[in-house]
Fold each of these.
Amino acid sequence: MLYWKGWFAETVDMALLDDADRIFFSFNCRMDGAAACIFQGNGAGEHVIGENAGTIQYGPGRRGIYRQSGLVENLSIMIRRDLFETWCRDVDPDLSEMLRSGGFQGGHRGGELMATAHLLGEALQLVAKGDRQARHSLWFQAQSMLIIGLFLEARTEAGEGKVSEAQRQRLHKARDRLLSDLSLAPALADLARDAGLSLPSLTRGFRALYGDSPYNLFQKERMQAARRRLLDADGSVASIATEFGYTNTSHFASAFRKQFGIAPGSLKRQG
């Protein structure tokens, strides 16, 4: 078990090397800022970490960067793959494939999962302060097993592993169109129609496959792209805001700060 609590006034990048050979079940208990993992190899790319949501990661030997600004509190349960597989022989195909080749899967949510993660996090903080009698060691072991079980239930409830291949292809098509122009989000009805899906199927499918709503996914990707442009130090904040569809620079700054916990002008000066 690991409880991470960190606050950074500015964006900080930390090198990652997965030398634990464990499956990570991580739940982000509190966020007043932004966090992301940027991996090389299997699961390569930038994975934004959301508040009150969980991720499953597996990638022995994988390298990358952990990026954080503001406050983040995160609980992780780490378990050997062979032990996990003796407990759970009925995992869904997506998780089974990830455990075979490595990767990162987010969007695990649920009221009981959130409550259990917060409860265990609070107990671990008491131990960190020297209260060794806060809970019996068997209680911590039981809560750890409960959290892993709730992660698997969250996958079932969200429909992960139940998206058909035909639906998956339609959802990928919808995602590609959604992110093709980050200055203007298409209407959801148009997005669903062009992908051959009903509007409810589109929204349910996005949550099952990508762990977020279409609009939230669009907004996160738009801010990530804007962040890269700001770090390139090419163009003013106002011109970059316009490039990404904002007619009001203050609205752009507010959206940027909400995601990253830092004003775009401050980030640009760092770059």
Amino acid sequence: MGFTARERAVLGVAFAAFVAAGLTSGMSGLVPFVTSLVALAAVAWLVSLATELLGQHFGPAVTGFLQSSLGNMPELFVVLAAIQAGETEIALTSLIGSVLANALLMLGVAIMVGARHATDGVMRFSARLPNDTATLLQVAVFGIVLVGLVESAGTKAAQHITAISAIASVCLLVVYLCWVIPYLRADQRAAGTERDRPRVSLKVCVALLAAAGVMAAFVSEWFITALTPAIAQLHISKAFAGLVIVAIAGNAAENLTAILLAAKGEADLAISVIKNSVAQVAAFLFPLLVLVSLLFTHHLTFSMPSIYIGGLALGSLTVWQITGDGEAAFYEGAALVALFTILGSFALYS
């Protein structure tokens, strides 16, 4: 059946943004930064489209997993490019921002939209995924908090943060696998055998993903190259660039999808998109990149400023408290947005 008009538009915008970013990559000023940022969001949208089409070949359980896994492809390449360039602060704050922008900002907006749609002003959804995500997030925060305590105490272990972070990352990845495998199997049993007929062939879907991967690699490098001079011109900190700008742009497609689902009253799907992304970044992407960074000159660890340790710890508890019972009111969504705004203001003036 082929692509719909909307899907063809997404393809056109993504490739046009990629070409524009490539043509302006060698220029001075803010133009390369703006074009590469737009291209980053466009590539994220292309990845979201490709995984959605690919999921039609495998069913809803695998689709959700692919959307949350491959949807973080632009974020992966941005962090790798930052590590390779020695910009570990941008790499770290991008990952923290990706977790908190989804868990606080976008979840808050989705709850506000969903609560407005509900007849009684309360958004209701299955509590299982929010609780599972809270557990995974708290396991990740456990290691991060302990690393922070060790560094502040100046003990002997503080001299081995890279090794400790690697060990903690392996443990976190094992916990994630112990969760995701039964989760996918349970969803497959619940989903049954009915699925929509694929509109695009499997070869085309794989080709789209491969193209998106190549584009993400180039765009990430262009973006990191343009970021430092843009920071100087815009008078913003590297922390703000990573925590807010990169995090929001890299997750633009899936976040917009979640908000639109909430507006349609599809609360479970909206929460699933956001919560899967939080779990993926906190318990899979972050520890994976810690291990991969061991191959580079500059290493990514769980060491970070205390403000972000506090933000992750308190944020994880707040998210669990608000979504753990399977329902949330408008003001609770507004509270989550407020928390991210407060944290972003610290990054802005850091």
Amino acid sequence: VGLPDLGITTEPEETGDTYTENACLKASYYAARSGLPTLADDSGLDVDALGGEPGVRSARYGGPGLDDPGRVKLLLHNLRDVPDAGRTARFVCVIAVAGHGIPPQTVRATAEGVIAHQPVGSGGFGYDPVFFVPSLGQTLAQVPAATKHGLSHRGKAARLIRPLLQRLLLTS
């Protein structure tokens, strides 16, 4: 079930300095409110030439006045003088599971790529139009959803968390 199914409309402030801290904070927060084992994730884009930015603050990059296209524009501006070889980046996803008597447990997955010089494609969201995957020769915004899910940071993390969930269900 999702949060709306349970009538949960509040959300915790993401005060962590890492993806793991934020994922655990959210999983614990929602598990306490729902009384159920809970999955939560935190994810973002780490760009090497920017020292890991936008990182854990990817959804808030540039401040509250920017939407996804605005954040992409800011990212490209900040990378304007960086040559192709220095535009390496990765999407990161940490999924945490927590519940009554279950301390948060996490998995982490990444998807490697480079930041393109301009947005290409209309699929996906966020930074997908500038996240170029060399093995595909396309940005994530250009590939079909099934392909994206197979190689994305979230898809990989979801596959990694499955055995952990199965073990938790067998022991509870």
